[in-house]
Amino acid sequence: MAASDSVPDELLRTQKAFLEAIGRYEAVSVYRHAGTLTSVANVSLQAWLVWWAVRHWSNPLWEVVAVLAAIVVADFVNGVVHLVMDHATGYRSAIGPFVANFHLHHRIPVYRRRNLFVVYFRESGSKFWLVAYLAAVAWFLPTLLAASPASAHFFVLVGVLSSWAEVSHYMCHTTHYRFQPWLEKIGLGLSKTHHAHHHAEDNVDYAFLNGWTDPALNAIAKLLADGYKNTTDLHDDLYEVRARS
Ligand SMILES: [Zn+2]
Ligand SMILES: [Zn+2]
Questions:
Q1: How far is the CA of 52 from the centre of ligand 1 (A)?
Q2: What is the pLDDT along the chain (245 residues), one digit of tens a residue?
Q3: Domain tally for the chain?
Q4: 18, 235 in Cβ contact below 8 A?
Q5: Is 243 inside a domain boundary?
Q6: Is 244 inside any structural domain?
C-alpha cells in the first residue's frame, strides 16, 4: 500500500473506533451512570470539605492571597486537563467511551439550558481526577488547618472552582445573564470573545474558568501538543450530530 493511502485508512479506523466508543457510552448504562456517581462523589466531598474548612481562619491578608491563588491555579490545572483530554484517543480502552464523549464538546459547543446548580452537579460527573484530588485534600485537611487555615482554604477552593469552571464554560457558550460580565471581572466567568478562539483556531486557549492562564497554557501547548483541528476533531466525522444531552 502506498504511504499516502495509509493516513486516510488509519483515520477511518480511528473514526470507526470513536463511533463504537460513543455507541458504548450511549448504550451501556454503566458508562452513563458512572458520571452520576462521580458527580455525587465530587459534590459531597466538596460540601464536606467546605463545612470543615470554614471553622478556622487565618488573617484576612492570607485569606485574600489564598482565594486569588486558588482562582489562578484552578484555571491553569483545569486548562491542562482540557489540553490533555483534547488530544486523548484510546477509544478502545475501558475509558474510551468517556474520551469520545469529551471530544463532542468541540462538535456541539452549546449546552442544553439548565439551572446552574444542575449544571454544576452534572458537569462534575466528567471530572474523575477531581475525586482523587478532593479525597487527598480531605486526608490532609486536619494537618493543613493546623498549619495554616488559609492554605487549607486554598486547596479546598481549587477543588470547588474546578467544578465551577464547568459552569463558567457552560455560561460562556449558552447564557447571557446580566451578572456574567461581573463574574468575568473577578475571575469566576469566561469571556465569550476570549474563549471563541479555542473553537475557531487550533491548539489555543484551553483555560475555561476565566482564561487568565491561557498565555502559559498556549506556550505549553505550542511546545508539546499537535492541536485538535487535524487530529481528534476529525475522529467524530462518522457520528451523527445530535443536540447535547
Ligand atoms: Zn477543547
Ligand atoms: Zn468551549
A1: 34
A2: 444 455 589 999 999 999 999 999 999 889 889 999 999 999 999 999 999 999 999 999 999 999 999 999 999 999 999 999 999 999 999 999 999 999 999 999 889 999 999 999 999 999 999 999 999 999 999 999 999 999 999 999 999 999 999 999 999 999 999 999 999 999 999 999 999 999 999 999 999 999 999 999 999 999 999 999 999 999 999 998 765 66
A3: 1
A4: yes
A5: no
A6: no
On whether residue 241 sits in a domain, the answer given is: no
Q: Are 14 and 239 in contact (CB under 8 A)?
A: no
Residue in the block written with cell 473553537 = 199
Whole-number Å distance, alpha carbon 110 to ligand 2 midpoint, is 8
Task: Assess contact for 126 and 38: CB atoms under 8 A.
Answer: yes
Question: Which of the ligands is closest to the CA of residue 108?
Answer: 2
Q: Please give the distance, rounded to the nearest whole angstrom, from the Cα atom of residue 141 to the centre of ligand 2.
A: 33
Which residues lie at CB < 5 A from ion ligand 1?
Answer: 86
Calculate how far, in angstroms, residue 143's C-alpha sits from the geometric centre of ligand 2.
37
Q: How many angstroms does the Cα of residue 227 sit away from the middle of ligand 1?
A: 10
Instruction: Give residue 160 CA to ligand 2 midpoint distance, Å.
Output: 20
Range of the domain at 150: 3-234
* CA nearest to 231, candidates 245, 221, 220: 221
| Residues with Cβ within 8 Å of residue 81, at least 6 apart in sequence | 129
